[in-house]
Design goal:
It contains 12 helices and 10 strands. It has 251 residues and is of the alpha/beta class. A 5-stranded mixed β-sheet has the order 2-1-3-10-4, with helices on both faces. It is elongated, with a radius of gyration of 18 Å.
Length: 251
């Protein structure tokens, strides 16, 4: 509810000010790339993209409760589909990129052997985003089960609310290894801060990430700016930015 109130407060601003902004709900895995997209979008259009970052599940709940977001970049297609089914969107969900799951270690612990690396005695804590709310967490649990390591690793798992919290567990030393998005380790702020390895994509369902424009954009007379940001995501420049951050897109 706190974030919803913050958003409602933001919308108390004069309409003249609002006209130069678009409010974007962003799944935590996409925060680094979304910051770059927002920067380039403002250069190109003069419109500021205000980012509100959380797990896809929490953002969906906030949108359902009336959070006045204009557009939602989810970490999967499930949550955008739910919003579309509830008639809270202006368009059908569309895949903007496909994500990659990785294992990230900061303590000199090798992850070269893939998931089997996690069974080493040196790995005591493994951070995973809440699979009920975060698609990357769900993908991590699916991979662990597919590799038949659920029983061996169960006691080592620690859960974060979102990818952002999982990353903090790793960076602060609260976890030895974290399951996170490839985009996170390709972020300039986090490059060279540990070892990482992609999880075999055969071990988890594809992470197709979806976007929808929300009906709040129409209500708040912000549909034009929303459409511009939406179109920018699928432009050649937008796609090239996603690719730099490790997402799979059709250029």
């Amino acid at each position: 509810m706190k974030r919803v109130l913050i958003l409602l407060t933001a919308f108390a601003l004069p309409i003249a000010t609002m006209a130069q902004r678009v409010f974007v709900g962003v799944a935590a895995n996409a925060e680094p790339v979304a910051k770059k997209l927002a920067k380039e979008f403002k250069k190109e259009t003069g419109i500021k993209a205000e980012l509100y970052v959380s797990s896809s599940g929490k953002l969906t709940t906030q949108i359902e409760q009336g959070a006045p977001l204009d557009i939602f970049l989810s970490a999967d297609m499930k949550y955008p589909q739910e919003l579309y089914a509830k008639k809270l969107t202006l368009n059908k969900p569309r895949v903007y990129a496909n994500g990659s799951l990785i294992m990230w270690s900061r303590k000199g612990i090798s992850v070269d052997n893939g998931l089997q690396s996690l069974t080493a005695p040196a790995v005591q804590k493994i951070a995973v985003a809440n699979p009920a709310l975060a698609p990357y967490g769900s993908a991590a649990i699916a991979a662990i089960k597919k590799a038949k390591l659920a029983t061996k690793l169960q006691a080592k798992l620690v859960y974060g609310e979102s990818i952002s919290q999982v990353n903090q567990y790793l960076l602060t030393g609260a976890a030895d290894v974290a399951f996170t998005a490839k985009s996170v380790v390709l972020d300039l702020d986090k490059k060279n801060k540990g070892d990482w390895k992609e999880v075999d994509p055969k071990l988890y369902p594809p992470i197709a990430q979806g976007v929808v424009m929300l009906k709040a954009a129409d209500t708040n007379k912000n549909k034009a700016n929303t459409q511009k940001f939406y179109d920018f995501l699928f432009s050649r420049k937008g796609k090239s930015i996603f690719a730099v951050y490790g997402y799979k897109v059709g250029l």
